[in-house]
Write a structure and sequence with these properties.
heterodimer; A: Cytochrome Bc1 Complex, Chain D, domain 2; Cytochrome Bc1 Complex, Chain D, domain 2; 3 domains; two-stranded antiparallel ribbon; 8% strand; elongated; B: alpha+beta; Immunoglobulin-like; 2 domains; five-stranded antiparallel sheet; four-stranded antiparallel sheet; 41% helix; 21% strand
């Protein structure tokens, strides 16, 4: 597929290329004989009175090498793309070459990944080779958000603790990595107002045992029961099906200080965990799940 | 080999000249000349013995070293795929390329040095083109015979010629393939390679390089020979830049030799008005590049000193002093110096400067190599999350330590962190002792926590102290590395 709007350019390139190659051959043939002047060893040109140039012969094999390169270029341009949009008799493309190399690499790695695919996530979390492989995959793909040690940061979950937004069993972890997650907290500012948001924030802080104003806690509890339990549960323990966090532990995705909690309630949150099914494939995700599981379940515990 | 002083007509010499084959008339000549094959005559002598010695030494090294083992692996191995270069007890990684640079600088300076002193020593004695051409020509001489026999064979037609040529080319091809095989054997372990060859299961790239290098050897040493030196090698062209009037070069003593001419052994040359040169033409016959050294120093002369050996044999037969063609310098000839005066000029400024710089680089590279630590650590800060607050209120920064173990023993590594007093309670939260296998790199995520004294935001300097004890070693053998980094304290909201 050409990027040009007109097919003239393809034709133009092809003609110039072939004409140049033919021109090289013509140049070589026409310049193969020298016109002998009075002195056969010199070119006959004189500069500055007495500056002359020798005309020593080159070896004939040199000329033959030149002709060989011309023949090679013609053959090359027949088999490979080079003359405009002509794809070449072998239809070679760099993306095709890449696909071939990728497929060959996958074939080489297949025995190892077949072995790992048969193990469970818990078993992978105890296998040193799987852990080393999983760590490199993690550092390559996941550490940009979740940090190199898996501890996350503001807005990116800590994978080393026991708190899971969407479920911490091996199957859920694997599904999270494969298909991604979408964590949406709707904004409640318009619903409950500024003071209402502050009240709810204080109540939520009190659930984790943090300092809170008593009056606000009472008012907040009431607001919570009417607005928040649908997602976060009547006991505020969260709902893994929706990704609604457990509000009673001291673990915060976006920080637990008062201004941040108020912001969360007022403006809501939207977090995305990208899906890795297409980019990594199931075999690699399975090994990765083992590593992630090991972060919160260190071996020999 | 007995050399009879005989007068040869110049026209019979195999000489490269202008206007070979295909002249179309006096007004137009072919610009390319057909190569005239050179049939160098065999020669023996002091310099010839030196050349043979060096051929044997270099080829013993090339063909033999590939088979040596060290610690259960090949002693000299350049594993390109794994990017590890094994040279006996040392393992070099791409980070150690500075030593290759040092080696190349040393090679270049050595070249300048001995070329300034004694001309094209490399070309005539050690260059692979010369060495392999000599080996191939030795094979040719054994099969086809001496110079006259070879010239006669090339004029023959028939079964005998076919038989001899086939035998010669078979041996040449066999040696070329062995050379290609040995060359590839420095990149893929040669024992493994030999098993693959026997089982006919060579990989595509190994086959390619084996055949390519084999073909290059066969082509360059069997067919091209002096054409490489004359037309392809740049060294021939810039040698004149490396010589000076005190450089020892293969010289024909014109004053002593001219006028040249045949005479009987009993006669007195001076009485006949002749110089010492009997015009036997041996110096031209033995020359592998086909020049006449009596015309003076030419760019084709590779400094192999075969003409010196040839002429000295004739001089001996004629009871004249040797050295009509000898190593001499421009100044020595111009001023009529004796050998002592000539050699006194060897230690001149140019030579001393080259030697001085060479010594400096060798010492520096050697010292650096002996002090080299096979353990390297790189600290890479996490960039996406600069800092975070832990449950207990501490600040955490996360780093990735890349620990490279270039030695062939496993390492027990422990990581510690040091910082300013402003960072109270500075500690590493992740496991800080680990093992790193031989010749591997290991990425280690490290979580550093601290309680900054004040609320001032910014970057605090910290230092990682990495202690690595090799397997089977004690604490005294430990490598201790210090790597600087920063601990970020974010602004409080």
């Amino acid at each position: 597929m050409s990027d040009f709007t007109s097919s003239f350019w393809s034709f133009y390139i092809a003609v110039i290329t072939l004409a140049s190659i033919a021109g090289c051959a013509v140049l070589l043939a026409s310049m193969s004989r020298k016109h002998v002047t009075t002195d056969p060893d010199k070119t006959g040109h004189v500069w500055d009175g007495d500056l002359e140039e020798y005309n020593n012969p080159l070896p004939r094999w040199w000329m033959w090498l030149f002709y060989i390169t011309i023949a090679f270029s013609v053959a090359y341009l027949w088999f490979y793309p080079g003359l405009g949009t002509w794809a070449g008799a072998w239809k070679w493309t760099s993306s095709g070459a890449y696909d071939q190399e990728s497929a060959a690499a996958e074939r080489d790695l297949a025995p190892m990944y077949d072995k790992f695919s048969k193990l469970s996530v818990e078993q992978l979390a105890a296998d040193p080779q799987a852990l080393a492989l999983g760590q490199r995959l993690f550092l390559n793909k996941c550490a940009q958000c979740h940090a190199s040690d898996g501890g996350g940061s503001a807005g990116f979950p800590n994978l080393t603790d026991k708190d899971w937004l969407f479920g911490g069993d091996p199957a859920s972890i694997e599904k999270t990595i494969l298909d991604g997650r979408n964590g949406v907290m709707p904004p409640f500012g318009p619903v409950i107002g500024e003071q209402g948001a502050k009240d709810v924030a204080h109540y939520v802080r009190s659930l984790s045992g943090l300092t809170a104003d008593d009056l606000r806690v009472v008012r907040g509890k009431d607001l919570f029961a009417r607005n928040c339990v649908a997602c976060h549960g009547s006991d505020a323990h969260g709902n893994p099906a929706l990704g609604a966090p457990n509000l009673t532990d001291k673990i915060w995705l976006f920080a637990g200080d008062e201004p941040t909690v108020i912001e969360t309630v007022t403006k809501g949150r939207s977090s995305v965990m990208p899906a890795h099914r297409d980019s990594l494939g199931e075999a690699r995700v399975h090994v990765l799940a083992g590593y992630v599981y090991s972060l919160s379940h260190p071996a020999g515990k | 080999m007995d050399v009879k002083p005989v007068v040869f007509h110049k026209a019979v010499f195999a000489h490269g000249g202008s206007g070979g084959g295909g002249a179309a008339g006096p007004a137009d000549e072919a610009l390319y000349e057909i190569r005239r094959k050179i049939y160098p005559r065999a020669v023996t002598g002091w310099f010839a013995r030196w050349r043979v010695t060096i051929v044997i030494l270099t080829q013993l090294a090339f063909y033999g070293t590939a088979w040596l083992q060290w610690n259960g692996r090949q002693a000299l191995l350049f594993d390109l795929a794994a990017r590890k270069f094994y040279i006996f007890g040392l393992v070099f990684w791409p980070q150690d390329f500075i030593y290759l640079t040092a080696l190349l600088v040393v090679s270049a300076l050595s070249l300048f040095l001995f070329t300034a002193v004694a001309g094209r020593l490399w070309c005539g004695y050690a260059c692979p083109q010369t060495v392999y051409t000599e080996i191939f020509m030795w094979i040719e001489r054994r099969i086809e015979g001496d110079r006259t026999a070879r010239m006669r064979l090339d004029r023959e037609r028939g079964l005998r010629r076919l038989r001899l040529k086939a035998a010669k080319h078979a041996l040449w091809i066999g040696l070329s393939l062995w050379t290609g095989f040995t060359f590839v054997g420095y990149f893929t372990p040669i024992r493994q390679l030999s098993a693959e060859v026997v089982a006919l299961s060579l990989g595509p790239w190994e086959s390619f390089w084996l055949l390519f290098y084999g073909f290059a050897t066969y082509g360059n040493a069997g067919w091209m020979r002096e054409q490489v030196c004359k037309y392809m090698c740049p060294y021939a062209r810039f040698q004149s830049a490396m010589f000076d009037p005190d450089t020892l070069i293969v010289t024909y003593d014109r004053a002593r030799g001219e006028p040249r001419g045949g005479r009987s052994r009993a006669s007195d040359p001076r009485g006949l008005g002749l110089g010492d040169c009997v015009d036997c033409g041996i110096c031209v016959q033995v020359c592998p590049t086909g020049i006449d050294i009596r015309d003076g120093l030419q760019y084709e002369c590779i400094g192999c000193a075969a003409c010196i050996d040839g002429c000295n044999q004739v001089m001996k037969k004629m009871n004249y002093a040797p050295g009509l063609i000898r190593y001499s310098t421009e100044n020595a000839l111009a001023h009529g110096w004796n050998v002592r005066q000539m050699l006194a000029r060897v230690l001149r400024p140019r030579v001393l400067v080259y030697s001085g710089i060479l010594a400096l680089v060798v010492v520096a590279a050697g010292a650096s190599l002996s002090l080299r630590q096979p353990v390297k650590v790189d600290v890479i800060r996490d960039r996406a999350g600069l800092a975070r607050r832990a449950e207990d209120g501490s600040l955490e920064n996360v780093y990735r330590l890349q620990i490279m173990n270039a030695s062939e023993r496993a390492l027990k590594v422990s990581i510690a962190v040091r910082g300013d007093h402003e960072l109270r309670d500075l500690r590493i939260e992740t496991p800080s002792t680990l093992e790193v296998a031989p010749t591997t790199t290991r990425p280690v995520p490290v979580r550093v926590a601290a309680r900054p004294e004040d609320d001032e935001s910014g970057a605090e300097h910290i230092e990682f102290v990495i202690t690595a004890v090799p397997a089977g070693g004690s604490a005294e053998d430990a490598y201790v590395l210090h790597e600087k980094s920063s601990f970020y304290v974010p602004k409080r909201r």
